[in-house]
């Protein structure tokens, strides 16, 4: 416990002392960046360095978390810094790298490849890393050439990793979730297992959204306590104390839970060297099954659960371990340290699956059920898919970990059932999408946001005061200053009479203003961007949404029927409006009627 206290103290001091932005997984911010919005400030070298060191301490401290989210953010951050260094030294590369424009620019493709390499190394699954990032960013931000680039990137990363491990005489199995293949003579599952697989998937289909809801409630409660009570006057010390106290709570809870485990002799088998048997209070040559699941890394615990040898003591230990880890995992939400919950969800599902397998073995000993490790894999896939709302990636990761493609079919069945149940009963989105909404990060999902179905273009326009709508190709410096100061809009119109002839990005105006200090007028037309698209003010949100979400249009003029300028709809403004209405809908302040979801007319023209 003393060691965990020291690690937690060092961890929280690093985060709050050097880079408070490094607290959390970084997945939501990374997802917003890959969606085409500028959250690149979170890719600073300081934040990445702190996140790199802090994620090591957060895992060694014993927090109920994984390292997947921070690893993906680190991979994307390293790609961003590399591209920024190249563009700084080679001016001809700046336009190609497209440091600030919307996705999919070359920098963002590099960040996707970096994230795929990170996931590939964690699970030793290059194809799984590619599929994970594909589901993470969706097809709207995945150009055709990115498949080949990510394939080559993961190939190089995997080869380099194996080579470095060979130099130090280590094996990849020591660092990843891995299960030995038992050969074609060993049948993984039988017909009698199909019904239990279905029941397990249904149960975890209900558990996954419940877990997400509880995590969000704890996160809201912790945020309220830290920012809206007397504790806000003692920040960041209150958050640091919260982190240290939770580390002590984890140590005490895991220790007490491990005391309930009985000692068992370590099995003499060739798999012993790949599994982490924790002795705890047992004698030499014996191990505690509960401690072996809780007093180790999440990867080590999942590896133990996936073991296909039918150890009954692991199944029984899963009950205590499941309750302990599930509770700690929920209560941990909102603690400001860099963590991921991908492996955590796998571990919860794996414990539940192992428990179901053990119960079946006790209730129906005459039936020749599959090993408990197979039930653990089914449970991990079902829980993970329900938590992350993913399909192919969880199957690929677990198939790779199991070292056997024969279990792909039941895994796919489990994922399908779990996702179907989750979509039916969930009152919230997937975990990452909920974080985007609650942090109010700009993000446009490829599917139309149904809460916007009653909106039109005039309802979605950015707020532009009169001072922001007076810029001409040659504008007075005072007019530019007034336009920049009167609002925070990302785009400004350049007018010729009542008509909009072009759009001016805020970043371009600010750059021109700094470049021409001391002058009375500035040629702002030099930074104008002519999109060529004008939208009628009555156009429905459903009609214009694909232009911004899938075609990555950054901004467009809204005009009246006679062509008079009415306003601007920007991608950032549309994302903010979508987030706002989703938050209102979740709180119950806005009623939605699915019966008229398709009643909005889509025959209005986009000029």
Describe this structure in words.
The chain is mainly α. Mean pLDDT is 83; it is low at 589-607. The chain is elongated and about 85 Å long. Helix content is 55%, strand content 6%. Helix 19 packs across helix 20. The strands form 4 sheets. A 3-stranded mixed beta sheet has the order 7-8-9.
Biggest β-sheet, characterized? 3 strands, mixed
Low-confidence stretches: 589-607
Overall average pLDDT: 83
Shape: elongated
Membrane topology: Multi-pass membrane protein
Region (Disordered): 587-607
Biased composition (Acidic residues): 591-600
Protein name: Chloride channel protein
Features:
single chain; 607 residues; mainly alpha; two-stranded antiparallel ribbon; 22 helices; elongated
Tell me briefly what this model is:
It comes from Durusdinium trenchii. The protein is mainly alpha-helical. The protein has helices at 2-18, 27-34, 45-60, 68-89, 94-97, 106-123, 126-137, 144-167, 194-227, 237-259, 289-294, 298-306, 312-331, 342-363, 372-388, 392-402, 408-425, 431-438, 477-486, 506-515, 541-549, 571-586; strands at 264-265, 286-287, 474-476, 491-496, 499-505, 521-523, 534-536, 555-559, 565-570.
Blueprint of the fold:
Elements: H1 2-18, H2 27-34, H3 45-60, H4 68-89, H5 94-97, H6 106-123, H7 126-137, H8 144-167, H9 194-227, H10 237-259, E1 264-265, E2 286-287, H11 289-294, H12 298-306, H13 312-331, H14 342-363, H15 372-388, H16 392-402, H17 408-425, H18 431-438, E3 474-476, H19 477-486, E4 491-496, E5 499-505, H20 506-515, E6 521-523, E7 534-536, H21 541-549, E8 555-559, E9 565-570, H22 571-586
Parallel strand pairs: 7-8
Antiparallel strand pairs: 1-2, 3-6, 4-5, 8-9
